[in-house]
């Protein structure tokens, strides 16, 4: 460390003595501090992947770019961070695509119930041209989308009774993400859907402001929802992506090399995150059971009833995001399923 510093100082003194421009020195030592916010806690799949991304950035930039991963919504819930990115007050974040629908309507595509049958389909569409096209719509709103990470297939928990059929949802106060599609999905199913930011969810469950919520197994585990929720029904009603976002104001001022460091790190962290999430998810049910949750699957006929109820909202989604995007996605999925 020492000799390097000395050499730099000497070089600078020499450069200044020769009348070389001071800005090149400033540039040479410039470090970028990146505030990267996320909503879950450090011990979650989101927190672990943020750490991987931060390490990759430090390594690739030789320590010149420092990503500070700040979890547990300490920088605010998703919607607040998005506004901070747009205004340039925060550099980066990872959050749910669902909370972006108010900014970029096309994001609602990912909220379509039962859009993907499995993670292979999700990866192919999200990482392919359709995923990119939806992401690129963010730019005109002041955000840059880098890549999608996996939040995962969502499942239903509540504290009233086991949900084994549609009617069991009648009047259940269910927290949903702040988004029209989720709101109408669960209203259609008969629940009393209440939109709330994720950061308020645990205490809302604890104080019984709401009876239930829906999230992937990983989150039910890492956010300790099992402490305040008794029943878990395996519904897999929708696949939720997370998205890595940068402030466009800030991004536009980065060099090509800096952008590449960030993009490569986001991709490496994505690959790590999907693997980690899937491994944890595969064991999570047993963990949740051992924590005292009562877990049930839906009988095939009941799952089919729920599915056909939910797909009644598809027409509305298609017209909101635009019929061409809807058709393109359905065609790509049909091709994959052949
Ligand atoms: C975390 C959220 C979370 C999402 C939700 O900030 O709100 O239920 O599933 O992952 O984005």
Write out the distinct hetero groups bound to the structure: D-xylonic acid
Order of helices and strands: HHEHEHEHHEEEHEHEHEEHHEHHH
| Mean pLDDT over all positions | 92
The class by helix and strand makeup works out as alpha/beta
Can you tell me the CATH architecture?
3-Layer(aba) Sandwich
Proportion of residues in extended strands: 15-25%
Strand order of the largest sheet: 2-1-3-10-4
Tell me what you see in this structure.
The structure is a single chain. With 338 residues, this protein is of the alpha/beta class. 48% of the residues lie in helices and 18% in strands. It contains 14 helices and eleven strands. Strands 2-1-3-10-4 form a five-stranded mixed sheet. Bound molecules: D-xylonic acid. D-xylonic acid (TK8) is lined by residues 39-40, 78, 95-96, 151, 177, 198, 215, 219, 240.
């Amino acid at each position: 460390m020492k000799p390097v510093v000395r050499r730099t100082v000497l070089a600078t003194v020499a450069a200044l003595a020769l009348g070389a421009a001071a800005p090149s020195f400033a540039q040479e030592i410039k470090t970028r501090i990146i505030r990267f916010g996320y909503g879950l806690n450090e011990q979650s799949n989101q927190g672990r992947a943020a750490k991987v991304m931060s390490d990759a950035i430090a390594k690739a930039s030789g320590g010149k770019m420092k990503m500070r991963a700040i979890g547990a919504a300490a920088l605010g819930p998703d919607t607040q961070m998005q506004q901070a990115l747009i205004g340039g007050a925060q550099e980066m974040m990872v959050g749910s695509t669902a909370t972006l629908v108010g900014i970029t309507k096309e994001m609602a595509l990912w909220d379509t119930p039962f859009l993907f049958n499995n993670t292979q389909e999700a990866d192919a569409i999200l990482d392919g041209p359709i995923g990119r096209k939806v992401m690129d719509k963010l730019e005109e709103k002041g955000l840059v989308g880098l890549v999608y990470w996996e939040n995962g297939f969502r499942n239903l928990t509540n504290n009233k009774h086991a949900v084994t059929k549609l009617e069991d949802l009648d009047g259940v106060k269910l927290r949903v993400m702040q988004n029209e599609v989720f709101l109408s999905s669960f209203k259609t199913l008969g629940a009393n859907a209440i939109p709330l930011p994720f950061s308020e969810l645990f205490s809302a469950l604890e104080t019984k402001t709401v009876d239930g919520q829906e999230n992937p197994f990983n989150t039910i585990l890492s956010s300790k929802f099992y402490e305040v929720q008794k029943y878990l029904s395996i519904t897999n009603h929708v696949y939720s992506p997370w998205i890595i976002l940068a402030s466009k104001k800030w991004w536009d001022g980065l060099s090509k090399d800096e952008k590449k460091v960030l993009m490569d790190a986001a991709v490496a962290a994505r690959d790590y995150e999907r693997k980690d999430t899937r491994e944890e998810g595969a064991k999570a049910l047993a963990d949740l059971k051992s924590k005292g949750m009562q877990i049930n699957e839906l009988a095939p006929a009941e799952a089919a009833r729920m599915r056909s109820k939910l797909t009644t909202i598809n027409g509305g989604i298609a017209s909101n995001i635009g019929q061409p995007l809807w058709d393109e996605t359905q065609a790509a999925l049909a091709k994959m399923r052949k």
